């Protein structure tokens, strides 16, 4: 039981609107945590704060520090610094390097992780160790067969998987997945859920997931955090949370899913 | 219908037979042979080809930034001029000094080389701060700030507050004659300068090609595709763009040094946005997503302009043609000439299916493949180098 | 006269010339800014539009009807039609591209070349000039200096255009659509605004203004094919300083640059032509939204 990610009274104002309203949360490395909530509850803003895309109005963000096991303040870090510190993400709308092949996508991430991005003299594909890592990751995510296909020709589900491979390639402590099953057909959903389970078992990364699909949420989560109007409404095991009346109300009372 | 298919089939057979065994080495040898033969061609053709080489390098440097990181600069003329003025000032002010030190026989060449290095250093010195500031902006705003920097340079060169640039007239570049062991030659002679340009441009192009296929270049391509994604993977996008900016400026600076010697003058017009636009035109027409795009584009630009100039009635209106071509390429065929050539080759070779991509997919595993292809490592670049051969013919 | 010694140095004529230069710049820049604010397109060909306006006016005055005002309206409308056609045929297909901004910039740059050459083809490389319309073709003497009365007319018209545009954008139904679309295109589209048509309409309006600028300036300058390239850079400076998308910003920016062009050489000798570009760089870095107001103001 160690905390890998922590926020303290995190707040984000957009003019008059308070999108995230004093969220304090501790993510434990032993569980898969799902963050759910009705549309407009502030989930994506929360993710953008965590990853440095947005700067919080107040509050702080802490991430596990590799050295001592303590926590490092990443509140003011820029997105690339957050990623380097060990927080990785996938996007709600798939965001991969469209014009590159799957292998090249993963190679970019590995180059970033190995900090060889400023090496302009050697061949990008000339590093045998790096290529072996790429190969391993492709296998792990089941992308080997389409490794040399350009991403702009992939299906939606395949792109999702590429996103996961990218996020994992930088060996994160925490992996934030934003709606991993959005826009997928049932078969693809089943596949991605079993992939998430496998990866969670195989890797050190701690998974944090936002999700609309409640079947997926109950299936994979050890813990569920409910956000409503930017604040934490409920937090606990799936059973507790789903039986909580306030949660039902929040969903039915607003834009029901 | 069947008749055409047979004819098409025959053409395809013929072409694939002809294409069979055209390895990188053979193309290299053929290209080298072509370059050597050209040195004995008509004087004007030698000049035109040298002109092409210089513009190609200019556009290639520009495209490192545009095609590889997605930043469109309208101010790269600044670095073109930087190289030109650097060498011109050294030749003007230090020529006699060098002659005193090393003797007048070799000094013109030495001065030119030193001038080139000074020009390059000057360009890098300017590009470091200008790039650092410019990469803070993106898209249209980046285009505008580079345009402003270019025109700022233009204003300063024209007004010449430091008394270095000789205002609107520019600086005459006299390359002089080298005299070693009884034999002498003029550096500025068309064939000599052609040889010099070939060596410099090939070396710089090779350097750029290595960069593009390095880890650094791979990250550039990723940034072009999605800057957000790249930074979410831990890449400092701004810093990477800054580095690319400097590299891009340096290559353009080398082209500028060559331009000064070729034109015999370093003129303020080189910094003007309309000069920067030449790189844009050549690159877009050639195909910005290909390494060889700007090279092929420069070829098309200079040779079509030359072809148009053969018709006195059309001569005055060559810009019209390129304006229209530019519009058409952006609207209908963004892969440009290189993309078109690839498509044509695939048709002729009968590679059915997914057009331009076939190749990239096809030899993705090339390193362990057929031993004849000189160890094509990366996937896409191999695709591109093939088209490089196209412009030697 | 016990005025400070600086005043005679400046001279009323210099100020009037500066303001009239600013007025013509405003007419180009405001259209450029409007188009960028609503469509997100930086129209490189806008200087070409201005030049075209001047040429058409000249052609009508010298060849068809000897009435400057009719010719100016004809020039402005002709440019509007050219602009709308270009938007429809060459810019509209690009809105949905990932790198739409840059593609559109490059396409409009293509039109810089095309318009330049077309003008040369039709009217030749020489330069033309005409007299101001007869009513205003006299000199005004003020504070010891003289200037053409027509300059005052141009200044007045520029102010009228600013006021008219402001009323149009803030008080009319079409104006509210323009404002709505500029702040959120998708929302406007969902609410039933015919966005493509609105875009063409705004492009038409912006082009008309550029054409009008050219037409009104025809008596003040010599018109040659190089004109478009010269003014577009000034217009870029103006819209950046004033704020891309801002109409009042375009006005203030244009007057600033106009005054600088008129007065600058007297005060700052070396480096004076560099100053606007330096200002452009500084504004882009520190206040990319411009010095005055935001979108639609």
Overall pLDDT confidence of chain B = 80
What is the overall number of helices of chain C?
Answer: 12
- Molecular shape of chain B: globular
Which residues of chain C sit in consecutive blocks of at least 5 with pLDDT less than 50?
1-8
Question: Span from first to last CA of chain C?
Answer: 41 Å
**Helix fraction of chain C by DSSP (H/I, runs of at least 4):** over 70%
Strand content of chain C: under 5%
Q: Low-confidence parts of chain B lasting 5 or more residues at pLDDT below 50?
A: 352-393
What is the alpha-carbon Rg of chain B in Å? Answer: 22 Å
Number of strands of chain C: 2
Largest sheet of chain B: 2 strands, antiparallel
What percentage of amino acids of chain B are in beta strands? Answer: under 5%
Distance between the termini of chain B: 33 Å
**What would you call the structural class of chain C?**
mainly alpha
Q: Determine the fraction of residues in helical runs of chain B and give it as a percent range.
A: over 70%
Largest beta-sheet characterization of chain C: 2 strands, antiparallel
- Pair of chains with the largest interface and how many residues each contributes: A-B, 47 and 39 residues
Mean pLDDT value of chain C: 82
Name the shape of chain C in a single word.
globular
Structure description:
The complex is a heterotrimer of chains A (257), B (393) and C (297). Chain A has 257 residues and is of the alpha/beta class. Chain A has 2 domains: 171 residues, P-loop containing nucleotide triphosphate hydrolases (Rossmann fold, 3-Layer(aba) Sandwich); 76 residues, no CATH class. A 6-stranded mixed beta sheet of chain A has the order 6-7-8-3-9-10, with helices on both faces. Chain A is globular, with a radius of gyration of 18 Å. In chain B, strand 2 and strand 3 form a beta hairpin. In chain C, helix 2 packs across helix 10 and helix 10 packs parallel to helix 12. Chain C is globular. At the A-B interface, helix 2, helix 3 and helix 5 of A face helix 8, helix 9, helix 10 and helix 16 of B.
């Amino acid at each position: 039981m160690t905390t890998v990610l922590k926020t303290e009274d995190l707040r984000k104002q957009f003019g008059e609107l308070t999108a995230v309203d004093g969220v304090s949360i501790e993510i434990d490395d032993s569980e898969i945590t799902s963050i759910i909530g009705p549309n407009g509850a502030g989930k994506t803003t929360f993710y953008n704060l965590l990853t440095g895309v947005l700067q919080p109005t107040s509050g702080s963000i802490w991430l596990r520090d590799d050295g001592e096991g303590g926590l490092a303040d990443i509140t003011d870090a820029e997105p690339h610094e957050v990623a380097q510190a060990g927080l990785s993400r996938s996007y709600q709308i798939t965001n991969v390097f469209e014009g590159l092949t799957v292998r090249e996508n993963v190679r970019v991430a590995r180059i970033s992780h190995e900090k060889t991005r400023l090496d302009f003299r050697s061949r990008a594909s000339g590093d045998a160790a790096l290529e072996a890592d790429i190969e391993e990751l492709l296998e792990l995510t089941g992308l080997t067969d389409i490794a040399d296909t350009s991403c702009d020709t992939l299906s939606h589900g395949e792109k999702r998987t590429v996103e996961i491979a990218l996020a994992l390639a930088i060996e994160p402590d925490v992996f934030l997945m934003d709606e991993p099953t959005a826009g997928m057909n049932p078969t693809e959903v089943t596949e991605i859920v079993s992939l998430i389970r496998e990866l969670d078992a195989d890797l050190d990364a701690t998974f944090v997931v936002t999700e609309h699909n409640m079947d997926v949420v109950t299936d994979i989560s050890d813990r569920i955090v409910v956000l409503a109007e930017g604040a934490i409404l409920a937090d606990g095991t799936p059973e507790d949370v789903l039986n909580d009346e306030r949660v039902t109300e929040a969903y039915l009372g607003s834009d029901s899913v | 219908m069947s008749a055409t298919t047979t004819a098409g089939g025959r053409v395809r057979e013929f072409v694939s037979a002809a294409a069979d065994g055209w390895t990188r080495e053979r193309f290299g040898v053929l290209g080298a042979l072509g370059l050597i033969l050209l040195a004995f061609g008509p004087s004007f053709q030698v000049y035109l080809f040298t002109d092409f080489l210089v513009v190609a390098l200019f556009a290639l440097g520009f495209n490192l930034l545009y095609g590889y990181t997605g930043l469109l600069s309208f101010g790269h003329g600044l670095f073109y001029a930087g190289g030109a003025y650097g060498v011109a000032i050294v030749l003007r002010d230090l020529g006699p000094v060098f002659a005193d030190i090393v003797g007048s026989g070799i000094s013109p060449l030495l001065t030119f080389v030193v001038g080139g290095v000074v020009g390059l250093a000057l360009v890098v010195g300017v590009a470091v701060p200008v790039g650092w500031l410019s990469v803070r902006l993106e898209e249209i705003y980046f285009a505008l700030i580079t345009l402003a920097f270019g025109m700022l340079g233009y204003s300063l060169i024209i007004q010449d507050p430091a008394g270095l640039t000789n205002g609107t007239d520019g600086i005459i570049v006299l390359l002089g004659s080298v005299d070693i062991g009884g034999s002498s030659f003029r550096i500025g002679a068309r064939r000599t300068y052609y040889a010099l340009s070939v060596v410099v441009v090939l070396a710089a192009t090779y350097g750029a090609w290595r960069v593009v296929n390095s880890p650094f270049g791979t990250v550039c391509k990723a940034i072009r595709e999605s800057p957000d994604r790249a930074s979410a993977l831990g890449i400092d996008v701004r810093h990477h763009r800054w580095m690319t900016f400097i590299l891009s400026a340096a290559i353009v600076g080398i082209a500028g040094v060559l331009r000064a010697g070729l034109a015999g003058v370093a003129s303020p017009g080189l910094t003007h946005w309309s000069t920067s636009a030449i790189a844009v035109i050549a690159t877009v027409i050639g195909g910005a997503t290909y390494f060889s795009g700007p090279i092929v584009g420069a070829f098309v630009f200079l040779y079509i302009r030359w072809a148009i100039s053969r018709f006195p009635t059309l001569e005055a209106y060559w810009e019209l043609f390129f304006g229209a071509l530019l519009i058409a390429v952006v609207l209908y065929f963004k892969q440009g000439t290189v993309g078109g050539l690839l498509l044509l080759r695939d048709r002729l070779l009968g590679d059915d299916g997914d057009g331009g991509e076939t190749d990239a997919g096809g030899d993705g595993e090339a390193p362990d493949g057929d031993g004849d292809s000189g160890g094509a490592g990366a996937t896409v670049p191999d695709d591109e180098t093939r088209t490089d051969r196209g412009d030697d013919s | 006269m016990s005025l400070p010694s600086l005043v005679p140095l400046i001279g009323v004529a210099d100020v009037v010339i500066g303001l009239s230069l600013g007025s013509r710049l405003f007419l180009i820049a405001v259209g450029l800014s409007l188009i960028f604010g609503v469509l997100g397109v930086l129209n490189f060909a806008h200087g070409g539009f201005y030049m075209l306006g001047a040429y058409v006016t000249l052609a009508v005055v010298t060849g068809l009807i000897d009435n400057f005002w009719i010719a100016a309206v004809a020039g402005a409308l002709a440019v509007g039609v050219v602009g709308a056609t270009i938007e429809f045929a060459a810019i509209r297909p690009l809105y949905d591209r990932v790198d739409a901004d840059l593609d559109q910039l490059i396409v409009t740059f293509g039109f810089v070349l095309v318009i330049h050459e077309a003008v040369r083809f039709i009217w030749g490389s020489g330069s033309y000039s005409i007299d101001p319309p007869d009513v205003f073709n006299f000199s005004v003497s003020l504070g010891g200096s003289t200037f053409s009365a027509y300059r005052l007319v141009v200044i007045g018209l520029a102010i009228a255009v600013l006021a008219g545009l402001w009323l149009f954008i803030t008080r009319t139904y079409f104006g509210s659509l323009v404002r709505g679309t500029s702040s959120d295109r998708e929302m406007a589209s969902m609410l039933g605004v015919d966005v493509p048509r609105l875009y063409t309409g705004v492009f038409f309006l912006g082009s008309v203004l550029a054409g009008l600028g050219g037409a009104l300036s025809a008596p003040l300058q010599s018109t040659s094919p190089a004109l478009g390239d010269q003014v577009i850079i000034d217009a870029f400076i103006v819209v950046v300083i004033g704020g891309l998308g801002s109409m009042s910003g375009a006005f203030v920016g244009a007057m600033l640059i106009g005054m600088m062009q008129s007065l600058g050489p007297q005060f700052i000798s070396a480096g004076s032509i560099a100053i606007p570009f330096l200002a452009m760089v500084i504004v882009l870095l520190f206040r990319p939204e411009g010095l005055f107001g935001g979108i639609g103001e």
